[in-house]
Hints:
Layout: E1 2-3, E2 6-9, H1 13-24, E3 31-34, E4 51-52, H2 59-78, E5 95-99, H3 104-116, E6 122-125, H4 126-132, E7 143-147, E8 151-152, H5 155-168, E9 172-174, E10 178-184, E11 187-193, E12 198-200, E13 203-206, H6 212-218, E14 225-237, E15 247-249, E16 255-259, E17 262-267, H7 281-295, E18 302-315, E19 322-325, E20 332-336, H8 342-359
Parallel strand pairs: 1-12, 2-3, 2-13, 3-9, 5-15, 13-20
Antiparallel strand pairs: 4-8, 5-7, 6-7, 10-11, 11-12, 14-17, 14-18, 15-16, 16-17, 19-20
Helix pairs in contact: 1-5, 1-8, 2-8
Amino acid sequence: MKTADIIIVGGGVMGSSVAFHLRKIGFDGRIVVFEKDPLYEFSSTPRSAGGIRQLYTTPINIQLSRYSLQIYKQFPQTMAIDGEPAEIHFRQNGYLFLATKEMLPSLKKHCSLQNQYGVPSQVLSAQELLNIIPELNIDDLAGGLYCHEDGYLDPYSVMQGYKKNAQRLGVEYIYKEVETITTNENKVSGVRLVDGTVYHASIVINCAGAWGVYLSEKIGIPLPVHPLKRQIFQFDVATPLKKELPLTIDPTGVYFRHEGSKILSGFSEDTKPGIDFTVTRSLFYEQMWPILAQRIPNFEAVKVTAAWAGLYSFNTADHNAIIGKHPSLHGYYMALGFSGHGMQQAPGVGIGLAELIYYGKYKTIDLTPLRFERFAENDLVLEDAVV
């Protein structure tokens, strides 16, 4: 009989963070992580834009991101193995929401809440924006919300850092696909793999990202989550910018940031739910490029050098994560539905879920607002600004 104490389905950044933190706080039982994609070719982690921001509008998300940012600042040192730093290329170039006159009152309210939780965000005037991006067209802007602490990093390196440290602490990774979670009456009993092999465990954590909703549905627990394609385009500019960009969100929703000497840009376009990795270059040329060129004249002459698509585990109810244990299926835990925020919140969620399992309660951050039961209780976590 193949057994484990804890099984984690999904070995991306979230599953690996949970596994690492379980070991870190003292859990010494057998932890097995199942990951169906050994090269992480289609994993959402390495396909993300890597943005790290504290500019949220709900207390729980602000606290999660503030905690995680502090972890990422020290990540190379604290996650080093045999003296080799776990470099994640964290660039604290800031995060910037551009605003029209109509948007500015809301941003001022958001800034006040963020400041209450220690986030050094500030509302800038249109003229002050030029100190950050000298080339910016501010004709239609009234200002922006900016945080200099925020920025962006290499998501794949973060995932590998958590994974390697988890393995160093004895966590096992098995690169096989889980067909279903198995149950016995009102509790989980393990997982069955696609090849028919059964592993027994009293705790199963669903960290399967965009695929996690399908696993949950198979055991009769539907979630308001579906996979949603998101595309990213990388391009060169003929005339370089004077300063490195913060991760900047235009009022239209188009975002852009530096990636070395190149620029990354994306947009939450309307798309059908489902597993889809096709790249539609017309999205860039027809919808995004006109906006980019209008906002920064340097973007009028560009050359697309790469493009890819990844998947959001998109929560249709309130666009926020579902974290914790299921109220009636004992031993079933979830960290799903991050809607593009997973990389930003992985350190905080990892320690929180580990504490809930090991201690029976949250200690570092109270993640109760993100519980599964909030949907039935109509106690949703609603952000004013969704990216």
